[in-house]
Write a structure and sequence with these properties.
heterodimer, A: mainly alpha, 2 domains, 17 helices, about 80% helix, globular, B: Rossmann fold, six-stranded mixed beta sheet, two-stranded antiparallel ribbon, about 15% strand
């Protein structure tokens, strides 16, 4: 039964990809080529980075940082897990157990994704880890599952279920157990996900605060449950990460920067999702006498304000957990501009679709690609315009941000 | 059943017997869909209980007793109508006679030529017909249809009327929420009238027809019409 569910989802995905390829053969074909080249790129990067990995592996803070990144990925995957709602209004009432739904719609697709990225991961790690590669992979999967189990515990508590208490306690115990205990998180995550309590009905009545197009866009994003969840998960991980990095002996400023980066990635979900969410109201944009560019610009501004608020809150949490002079967080500001701009652009290129986790992962992948591209371009450009440090570096980042936002608005306006 | 501080449905109590069609009527927002979602096991009531074929609603064995047609079917847009029917059959573990029933229903609704069309490419009404075919072909003891005639053309609405009567004649209990009082008069043996989340009238259709009179009196809409006319002077 679970395989039947998984097959139906995979068939839908394959047809969506066919449709996307027919609509934009260059973009989808390029993405497919990039995926095909991933093992070779991973091996190349692994060979080049092996000495640095070996040197860094001795420091506990390096392992904690990598573990935190994996945990963040795990919590994102958990929060994206669709549940029976993905089957549509009719089939969500089908007589399927939670376990069947979890296995069919989450565990099996995730296993397929893990198998697909397993080879590149091995090729990236093997040059540095050598014979310890399976152990490192198991630890990474354990950290991923630990993040997922932590997110499940928070979800259960948020849904007023006591199942969250033992799950949170088990997550804490495994985290205290260190790297060796991490693989134990895999069964814990599976059990917690299979026993996930039902979502509470959403409050229908809200305080009316929006009176303008900008205000309406702002509250639309701020009231989306899935965005609030992901932002909250990033904030929790930011606080925990800053605290753990401090305890493990990482220099304070570096710890805050690293933890603040997870807050930035959490904040990016709002501008990443915004263009896709706007597509649902396209009938209104198309029939409105306002110009498409002004509508897209208003939505982009609202999404960026929401994202920047989450990023500022996260940086505040990191600073509270590990106080350093605020001036030392300036690099986070520059990174924030790039991350938010890249997220907005990626979101307009690969629209975020609610209740379609694979498309959401696709939007994340586009975000990673755009951010990497912008980063590489700036790294090449900065020495040429003497803008590697200080205010000039900030100006360059602001220019890149403006380009990303403008490109996103132009793309969204054309589509409308 | 509550949503936050808002109590959506309270003190609702009715029974759908085998072979009977029960209509759930009421103005928009009166709690019809919430009640139906509780009956099919998608919402757990804060208090009280729902029993289907002797089993308390909630777990899969109770859900398996109910076939559900939602007001706005969605999801799995990329599957062809025929693939969707096959998926429903598999998930409900329906027997081999599912296909014969589905074929008969498709022929009745005129859907047979569109079975290879993707759900996402069908019109809203056609998509509702696919979900009706899927639900009715399951031949479950209880059939729940939300907003029965919404988006259906007059011909499909007549076919639906005949299909529901036939299903009831074969022993199924049918619970239908609808806004169309004429449809309810033709199809339903009993009606339950909801307003503000509570039952305000109920009875056998023949006893309380014409439904429009009963409806207007029960929800206090008669006085409201005059009030609306006066209010529209502002236009």
């Amino acid at each position: 039964m679970a395989w039947t569910l998984c097959k139906a989802e995979l068939r839908c995905l394959a047809r969506r990809l066919e449709g996307a390829f027919a609509a934009s053969p260059l973009v989808v074909g390029g993405a497919a080529l990039a995926l095909a080249a991933l093992p070779a790129v991973a091996l190349w990067a692994g060979l080049r980075a092996a000495p640095s990995f070996r040197a860094a592996a001795a420091a506990q803070s390096f392992a904690v940082s990598v573990g935190l990144a994996a945990a963040l990925a795990g919590s994102v995957v958990t929060l994206l897990a669709p549940g029976r709602r993905a089957l549509g209004r009719q089939l969500e009432a089908a007589p399927l157990s939670r376990t069947t739904v979890f296995v069919g719609l989450t565990a099996l697709p995730l296993a397929i994704v893990l198998c697909a990225i397993g080879l590149p991961a091995v090729l990236l790690i093997a040059p540095a880890a050598g014979l310890r590669t399976p152990v490192v992979l198991a630890e990474l999967i354990g950290a991923l599952a630990l993040g997922g189990a932590g997110a499940e515990a928070v979800l259960a508590l948020a849904r007023r279920s006591l199942r969250g208490v033992p799950a949170a306690a088990a997550v804490g115990l495994i985290a205290l157990g260190g790297r060796g205990a991490a693989p134990l998180a895999v069964p814990l995550w599976a059990v917690a996900a299979a026993l996930r309590p039902d979502e509470l009905p959403e409050r229908g009545t809200v305080r009316v605060v929006a009176r303008s197009a900008f205000g309406c866009a702002l509250v639309r994003y701020a009231r989306r449950r899935e965005l609030r969840r992901q932002a909250l998960a990033a904030l929790v991980l930011t606080g925990t990460g800053a605290f753990v990095l401090r305890v493990t002996g990482m220099p304070a400023a570096a710890g805050v920067l690293l933890a603040g980066s997870s807050a930035l990635l959490g904040a990016a979900v709002v501008p990443l999702a915004a263009p896709g969410l706007d597509l649902r109201a396209q009938w209104l944009w198309r029939s409105s006498p306002s110009s498409p560019a002004s509508i897209a610009g208003t939505s982009a501004a609202a999404a960026l304000v929401c994202g920047a608020s989450v990023a500022a809150l996260g940086t505040g949490v990191a600073l509270a957990a590990d106080p350093v002079p605020p001036a030392k967080t300036a690099p986070l500001g520059i990174a924030g501009l790039l991350v938010l701009g890249a997220a907005l652009l990626a979101g307009s290129l690969v629209p975020w679709r609610s209740e379609r986790p694979v498309e959401q992962l696709g939007a994340y992948a586009a975000f990673a690609a755009v951010l990497t591209g912008v980063w590489i371009a700036l790294a090449r450009l900065a020495p040429l315009v003497v803008a590697e440090h200080g205010p000039r570096a900030g100006g360059l980042a602001a220019a890149a941000f403006a380009c990303c936002v403008a490109a996103s608005i132009v793309h969204a306006a054309r589509r409308a | 059943m509550s949503f936050g501080a808002v109590r959506a449905v309270a003190d609702v109590d009715f029974e759908v017997e085998h072979g009977h069609v029960v209509g759930l009527l009421g103005p928009n927002g009166c709690g019809k869909t919430t009640t139906l979602r509780a009956v099919v096991g998608l919402i757990r009531p804060d208090a009280g209980r729902i029993v289907v074929s002797g089993i308390a609603q909630g777990p899969p064995p109770a859900r398996a007793q109910v076939a559900y047609v939602p007001d706005e079917p969605d999801g799995l847009d990329e599957l062809a109508a025929a693939e969707y029917l096959a998926l429903v059959r598999a998930l409900y573990r329906a027997g081999t006679d599912f296909e014969a029933r589905a074929a008969a229903l498709c022929a009745a609704f005129g859907m047979a030529p569109r079975l290879r069309v993707r759900l996402g490419a069908l019109s809203h009404g056609q998509r509702r017909i696919v979900s009706m075919v899927a639900a009715f072909a399951l031949a479950r003891p209880l059939i729940v249809v939300d907003e029965a005639t919404a988006a259906l053309d007059p011909e499909a609405a007549i076919v639906l009327r005949e299909v529901l009567r036939t299903l009831a004649a074969r022993g199924a209990g049918v619970l239908v929420a609808t806004q169309e009082l004429a449809f309810a008069e033709h199809v339903c043996d009993d009606v339950v009238l909801l307003s503000g989340g509570s039952v305000v009238a109920r009875g056998r259709t023949v006893d309380i027809a014409p439904l429009e009179e009963t409806f207007l009196a029960a929800v206090g809409a008669r006085a409201r019409v005059e009030e609306v006319r006066r209010g529209l002077d502002a236009l």
